[in-house]
Specification:
This protein is an all-beta fold. 2% of the residues lie in helices and 47% in strands.
């Protein structure tokens, strides 16, 4: 190890003085002072910590608050919205208003439907803020399917629900409304009503002729008529329901004809 002891080293004006090389350690003996143009630093000061006051920037800013170096700050957790439910949960392709329940909603959030299969997104046509726990959104969704809801507050905090919204067409009747036919009293009747996407049928109002019943799975109306004593038209409404619980009603009628018997008295 080389050692050079001098009382003073004065570099030539305009030049620099280099002490050691890369990787060297420069050690000042105890009690020495390094004098700089703007003050001096003792060896003890170099060995210890440097006071914040001697730094050009002694603090940093976190969330708008100044925090001294070496200090601490408590950062509040982000307040994210939560999702609880959507009503109704089944809608058609036409514009429909749904009510979304949850927490921590902030006026006015962005609401988007996300197709659970394709990932396609549909932004709500309109969103209304009711409270921190309730908002309404109007959707026009052209593609049938199931959807998740993405809700984002203006501050960027957001939540995405599971698959909670179904878009499906209503059952569509293929049997024309009105008369299903005219049948003689006591005759066997077998007619069928049909609607696309329907999974069940039910007589919603009115009544079928006596002895006639509706197959709630197939839409077949059948049986042997009984009970009509005169020509009668039976009016009734049948409701078709699809797998999502959506319904469509249609009015029908069946006529039962009963012939009039004439009695003749022959006098003596």
């Amino acid at each position: 190890m080389s050692q050079i002891e001098v009382d003073k080293v004065i570099p030539q004006s305009g030049t620099s003085l280099q002490l050691g090389e890369n990787g060297d350690t420069i050690t000042l003996p105890a009690g020495t002072t390094l004098t700089l143009p703007n003050g001096s630093i003792t060896n003890d000061e170099l060995a210890g910590s440097i006071a914040n006051a001697k730094l050009a920037n002694s603090a940093i800013t976190i969330n708008g608050s100044a925090v001294s170096l070496g200090g601490s700050v408590t950062i509040q957790g982000e307040t994210r919205p939560t999702f609880n439910s959507v009503t109704p949960s089944v809608i058609t392709n036409s514009q429909t208003t749904v009510t979304i329940a949850g927490t921590n909603f902030v006026a006015v959030p962005l609401v988007t439907a996300v197709n659970a299969t394709s990932g396609a997104t549909i932004i709500a046509d309109e969103v209304s803020f009711s409270s921190a726990t309730s908002i309404t959104a109007k959707f026009t969704i052209a593609v049938d399917g199931t959807y998740k809801l993405y809700i984002e507050n203006p501050d960027g905090n957001a939540v995405q629900s599971g698959t909670v919204l179904t878009v499906s067409d209503l059952p569509s009747w293929t049997t024309a409304a009105g008369s299903l036919g005219s049948f003689a009293g006591g005759a066997a009747i077998n007619v069928t009503v049909a609607a696309t996407d329907a999974t069940s049928f039910a007589v919603q109002s009115g009544s079928l002729p006596g002895g006639i019943s509706l197959n709630t799975s197939t839409g077949v109306i059948s049986g042997n008529e009984s009970g009509a004593s005169s020509t009668t038209t039976y009016n009734f409404t049948i409701r078709a329901t699809d797998a999502q619980g959506q319904t469509a009603d249609r009015a029908f009628s069946i006529e039962i004809t009963v012939a009039m018997l004439n009695s003749v008295r022959i006098g003596s």
